# Entry
Amino acid sequence: MSHRTANLPQLFAESRRWFEDALFASMEAAGEQPVTSTQASVFALLDDEGTTVSELARRIGVTRQTAHQVVHALIGMHLLEQVPDPGSARRILIRTTAEGRRVHERAQATIAVIESVLAERIGAAAVEALRQTLTADWGEPPLIAAP
# Structure
């Protein structure tokens, strides 16, 4: 990572990229299908019983059309499936397949190992402090008038 005079959002982005690079390369080396960052984020945002494409789009922060494309690519990879919503005949839910759950569990185990490598490199106390800082309640985002 390059730590020139980067601001915190840039450092967060570089750190996320470091984790994703390690995760995606490790998963591909283990023989898993390659996925994009957006495709990977879908798994963390799905409810166990399924989630609509519209709700996924809101959670990811993309348009419904983009979410639809991402979901259908993952359906084509046999990682997600569409099922009728038992609460509404007009809605379709997206949920993981058995293969999708297997891949997601493998990714979670891989992330745990990557976190342990980070702890070896920067220290377990630093990783724990980082985790506590990132999970602290930061409150609502402030509305700041530029000087």
Notes: Residues 57 and 67 are 5 Å apart (CA to CA). The mean pLDDT is 94. The beta strands are 80-85, 88-96.
